[in-house]
Here is the input.
Amino acid sequence: MATATYEYKVRDKSGQMKTGKIDAETPAQVAQKLKTMGYAPVSIDKTGGGMNTEIKIPGFGKPKVKLKDLAVFARQFATMINSGLSLLRSLSILVEQTENKELARVLGEVRNDIETGSSLSAAMSKHQDAFPPLMVNMCKAGEIGGFLDAVLLQIANNYEAEVRLRGKVKSAMTYPVVVLCIAVVAVIGMLLFIVPTFESLFDSLGGTLPFPTRVLVALSASLKIIIGPLVVLALIGLFVWKKVKHDLRVRNVVDPLKLKLPVFGELFRKIALTRFSRNLGTMMKSGVPILQSLDIVADTTGNVVLARATRAVQESVRQGESLAAPLTEHPVFPPMVVQMMAVGEETGALDTMLGKIAEFYDQEVESTTESLTALIEPLMIAFLGGIVGSMIVALYMPIFKIFELIE
Here is the structure.
């Protein structure tokens, strides 16, 4: 029998009325689940159909669980478990107080699976869009070792650090992107609206226009014809890029180029190394096996070059070699990282050493973004001023000869 979603009204042990939704095959199963949760069912109604049906447009408004939501969830979950609350009770509270509706829905399904006998990690693994493999495997290790609350705190710290890292990158990229967009809009606006006005004035005066002005007039006339197709192509290109940017064949071309960029390449490498060391250290500290940790970390670095190197290291470790030795064969790993990991292996504190590497590169990313911002600001101002200024000069060059044209 297929499952359906039921809306329910219940009274808790204190007599307060509560409402919610739950998935089950029959209303009887819903009532049984609610009773096991300590609630007294008041009403159970099947949802869906008619005006209550939710309308979803493919590609628009798709709910997502953000990394920040997972960090808040993990920290709250750890606090509740550490305080002695049961998994089911903790999840019930989180379902009610989580602001992200998609995460609340997923947590409700996880709670229902746990009620039927599933483990937390097994229930979370059914929702790969919400819970990354790193989080699922760390929870599994915490369940086996009996330190789930400590693992959840490590997950929260990990994701909070990742959120800060993304914020630093966005702060470095926002300014040049905004200035570039302003420059494009300014150029298009001048070509479409200002240049034609001057063109009619120049035609009435007669004479030969300077070469820069003729180029500007030709660009204006061409843009009037191709502006429509350009907008359509830009929208199509944006849509296609969103679809294929995660494709392995595309990443095999784009990711190596990102590391070779003159200014941003080193920043992208530091970001990938930060994620590699932080995620690997966090998983090893949580008790996840090294081979499984490397497999997951390879998918979380954000760059296919580092991912391929991690896979190669994984194969070497599987054959009995140390973790640090194979890293020397991959230039993407700096000598400092290799040496620190080698020391960590020798002293039995690899997870601690990886944490220090992550902290070092976090500081490096921060200082690099600050330097880039300080460098890019004057360059982008000069770039914008140069483009707009050259167009204004080209427009006013004929006016310098206006008296000659009038004569």
